[in-house]
Amino acid sequence: MSESERATRLRLPRWVWHPPSPTRLEVIDGLRGISILLMVLHHFGYDLVHFCGAPRALIYNPLVETLSPIFAGLFIFLSGVCCRFSHSNLKRGLVTFAGGMLVTLATYIMDMPAWFGILHFMGAAAIIFCVVRPLLDRLPRFPGVMVFAILFTLSWIFIYRQHFAVDGLWWLGFRNASFFSSDYFPIIPWIFVYFAGNIVGLWVTEKKLPPKFYSMRVPFLADVGRNTLIIYLLHQPVLYGLSMIINLI
Q1: CA distances from 18 to 23, 27, 54, 61, 74 (A)
Q2: Is the N end or the C end of the chain the one with fewer CB atoms within 10 Å?
């Protein structure tokens, strides 16, 4: 990075661009960067299918349908870890949830509403963490992670993949057959992945992992991983514009 680029980044507000910091771990930011880039790629495939007439098999196939929740879960898990490094999870949660509301407004106008997408969830999860943090801190760590893994699996099967004769609880995870959201990450089951990350974050902050974990450098991906909010807010308008250009060619 040149001195001029460094100076420009440092002048930008932190909600726009998070510069490198000695308190952050590049390996975690790098993994978050991989996750968000794969999410962007998946959304581009979605736009190509729905706006450009690309074959549905591009994104509606067993491989993508298997890997997509895995990488989304990795992103949520790592965000749970990162809560342990945040100076204000409440502020971060409110800002992220507000970003989710902007996405809802934009996607509603485009007739593909995202009622409770990844930003809504991430914001809500950070706020919930502020409330339950004392309880999470007291849980036995390894058993706690195992319990949350079991709760996620059970709620994925018996709640997330089901429909219920209820209205207004889609944000929690109970949706009826008529509910639709172009991006959907309800509290249940994803909060259990987030909580598991919260517990693992304690091991990370206490430096109980191998030394290489704390010294590894991942320059480009770490930059992406530090700035997932602004990337998420901007990527869909950019991809939609690219889709319209492709339609004109």
Answers
A1: 12, 16, 36, 36, 21
A2: C
Inside any domain, residue 113: yes
What's residue 73's pLDDT? 95
> Does residue 16 form part of some domain?
no
Positive/negative CA dihedral, 191, 70, 27, 98: negative
Give residue-wise pLDDT tens across range 174-203: 999 999 998 999 999 999 999 999 999 999
- What are the φ and ψ backbone dihedral angles of 147, each rounded to 5 degrees? -65, -45
- Whether 187 is in a domain gets the answer yes
User: Is residue 143 domain-resident?
Assistant: yes
Residue 170 has pLDDT above 50, yes or no: yes
Q: Show the domain range for 33.
A: 25-248
Using pLDDT thresholds of 50, 70 and 90, give the confidence band for residue 237. Answer: confident
Please tell me the total count of domains within the chain: 1
